[in-house]
Amino acid sequence: MAQALRGPLSWRGLPSAWSARRLWAWLAALPVLLILGPVLPGLYWALAPVLAPSVWQALWSDAQWPLALRATLVSAGLGSVLGMALAAGLATALYPGPRWLAMQRRLPLMLSVPHAAFAVGLLFLISPSGWFARAVAPLAGWLEPPAWVTVQDPLGLSLALALGLKESWFLLWVLVAVLGEQTVHRHMVVARSLGYNRAQTWRLVLWPQLLPRLGWPLAAVLAYGLSVVDMAVVLGPSTPPTLAVLVWQWLSDPDPAMQARGAVASVVLLALFLLISGIARWLWHGLVRRAAYPAGERKAASHPPRRGLHQPLWLVGYAVVAVLLLWSLADTWFFPALWPDALSLQNWMQVDWAPFGTTLGLAAAASLLCLPAALVWLEWGPQRYNALLYLPLIIPSLPLVAAQYAALLRLSADGTAPGLLWSHLLWVLPYTVLTLIGPYRAFDRRLMVTARALGQSPLGACLRVKWPMLVKPILAALAVGFSVSVAQYLPTLFAGGGRFATVTTEAVALSAGGNRRVLAAQALLQIVLPLLGFGLAALLSQWAGRTRRGLR
Q1: Distance between alpha carbon 465 and the CA centroid of its chain, in Å?
Q2: Global confidence as pTM
């Protein structure tokens, strides 16, 4: 009787339902294991020098170490705080309302600008000979650039500004998704109906609920700020550079002693991330305990926010693209002229288009490979391990890049196209899953139950019902994965072994003293690729919803 209740367990015929679920789970986990699995032994090979006390002693005695650490803490800390402050201020002032919706429509354009291209554009804006100084020059009587240190300053303040502006758009994108939930809107309506003004509602009701949900995105922002190299090369200090750039230089050195020092310093970056995250979590819990029971005092309604509150943030983004376009077309442009003397396409004739083709093919392959892996994982994979997929986003990237490089060296796959493609998958896959997981969870499961009741297999139900209905999120995930691959700098340098040039590596290389006009053109190409990806996704989404009312 008990055997009959449990069902057949014969391996000769069809497997039981439980065994089938396990089989599907293993199949779903296989692509993820192929992407993440080699990183684990790579971490051991790359970080083995950590166990040698002499390497730690060499790190502490290095003269560049203290100043590099200071610049890293200042740029990453201030950048994260500034990004969160901008996003929080805009959300508090504009949500809900038409200006919030207008800002929401502009976010994809801002997010499509890669970090390196944004850093180059900001360099052209705020440098002593930049566009802002040229605008002030007639009023100040300047005939030559002022002797100001506005970029590559020793403390990394310009890098912190760039990180804060760029990451505020990412945090706003996260807030748009969270504030779109009906529960959050109802809580605001109830609090306002009880007499609390806008500021009180956010401070007492909404932010205590939203900040814990922003923990992982904020961790990703901090991790990126600690380990960023491409933006730090463009805007950060150079003598000494930030710790991440120093680690990159040490790991790229042919001397094994310097490589060991870079491995130890990358562990220091990881320890810094864990320490800062732990302190922030402790401070948050202390604040929650102190303010667990608000007094309930109502205040008069605050004045409505000014209409132009969010405009400066967008103007900076538009100015970055505009100054890149002007420099790419400029023939001669001497200080203090605000506009070029003449415009020409000669700069574009000097552009090497080979990196553009390499980037296009690499990003397309990475996004197309990660999409089925993400769909299969979300459908049949063990969802309790989702946090493992997000680890590349929330920890500094340098230890992971070093682990990838060590694994590729052991496999003799460094400097090969498959090795370079695999190095990009580690970052494309988490963003693809992150983009799809919300729509996937919101999908009505009753539709799948109906499809199975009509005789469809699990895979057939997905192919004929679920995935066609999720075509818009799937196309958005493809565009996001494509843009993430375009922006990868460190994996391309290490895994590619210098044999593969992309628009990102070319832009960063040219920023070290190359032709500004060619640099602007290369940075624009880096912006064009994500825009093409998002534009194509939007067109395909519109075409897919033309004959389907529910997808419009």
Answers
A1: 31
A2: 0.88
